[in-house]
Amino acid sequence: MESARVKCYAKINLTLAVSPPEGGYHPIDSIVTSVDMYDWVCAKRRGGGITLETYGMGSEYIPTESNNAYKAAVAFCNRFGVDGAHLVVRKNIPIGAGLGGSSADAAGALNALCKLYGVKDRAAVKILADGLGSDVKYMLDGGFAHMRGRGEIISPFESGLKLYMLLLVPRVSVSTSTCYRTFDEEGGENCPPGEGARIALQGGDLYALAAFMKNDLAPSAKKLAAEVNDCYAELESFCPAAVNMTGSGSGVYALFDSREMCEYAYSRYKGGARAYVIQSVIPQKR
């Protein structure tokens, strides 16, 4: 095999509870799901180190050494004694929206390189992923999961529910570090732990899930970017089951009980944010 290509899916935080920092990290408790918005990562054999090309969403302007896919490839080659690889990343996931795009690309690089070089040691790959960022280990497999700690404690679970959402991404991003700092100074939503949302998902109860959907960082993001608050108001005008923010923003989404309702809201949306109709997805097992 001379090349391998994989999809790397975005994620949505359905709940996000944040605790005060411990040892430099804020412990979190979050229910997450993959959604059908994805980047492509292609890995090609080469010797002499790692090279990278990126396309889309402004990724062309990110220095190679700062790109998470590049960092993942370097870590992979060092761990498994691989001479090198050429990576091509084609981005569709908006940057700075709380959708985990950079973590998805890092996980995509690891998965593509495993496929290219026939690496089967998933335990070792997960250790690598855990050192690359809070969401990367989850992104290796995706799906529904309960994430805790700094994101390293992952409990996957199954649900028969298909979630349909209208996602709005403002033209401004929210700095993750600034959002957490503002949260430390002013507090947040006091979102309950994810157990209730997990039970609702496993029981197939959309409206029970909606009752648990909160994000502790939302008040901070609203303060930092008025556009986030605007997105909440615009989505709430469509009377969805719930409106929530993903990650530290700036992406805000509305949960509906059908794709038809999502598409209706999409057709009526006249605001300035980028709008996407998305749904939960279970990626194929690696």
Written overview of the protein:
- The chain has 286 residues and is α+β, with helices and mostly antiparallel strands.
- It has two domains: 154 residues, Ribosomal Protein S5, domain 2 (2-Layer Sandwich), CATH 3.30.230.10; 110 residues, GHMP kinase, C-terminal domain (Alpha-Beta Plaits, 2-Layer Sandwich), CATH 3.30.70.
- It has ten helices and ten strands.
- The strands form two sheets. Strands 1, 2, 3, 4, 5 and 6 form a six-stranded mixed β-sheet that branches.
- A hairpin with a 6-residue loop joins strand 8 and strand 9.
- It starts with a strand and ends in a 7-residue tail after the last strand.
- The relative contact order is 0.18.
- Uncertain residue ranges: none
Enter the CATH topology name of the largest domain.
Ribosomal Protein S5, domain 2
- Rounded Rg: 18 Å
Q: What is the average of the pLDDT values?
A: 95
Keywords:
27% strand, Alpha-Beta Plaits, Ribosomal Protein S5, domain 2, alpha+beta, 286 residues, 4-stranded antiparallel beta sheet, 10 helices, 6-stranded mixed beta sheet
In brief:
With 286 residues, the protein is an alpha+beta fold. It is 34% helix and 27% strand. The model has no long low-confidence stretch (mean pLDDT 95).
How are the secondary structure elements laid out?
Elements: E1 3-18, E2 28-45, E3 49-55, H1 68-80, E4 84-90, H2 101-117, H3 122-130, H4 136-139, E5 145-149, E6 153-156, E7 164-169, H5 176-186, H6 195-202, H7 206-212, H8 218-224, H9 226-236, E8 242-245, E9 252-256, H10 259-268, E10 274-279
Parallel strand pairs: 3-4
Antiparallel strand pairs: 1-2, 2-4, 2-5, 5-6, 7-9, 7-10, 8-9
Helix pairs in contact: 1-2, 5-8, 6-7, 8-9
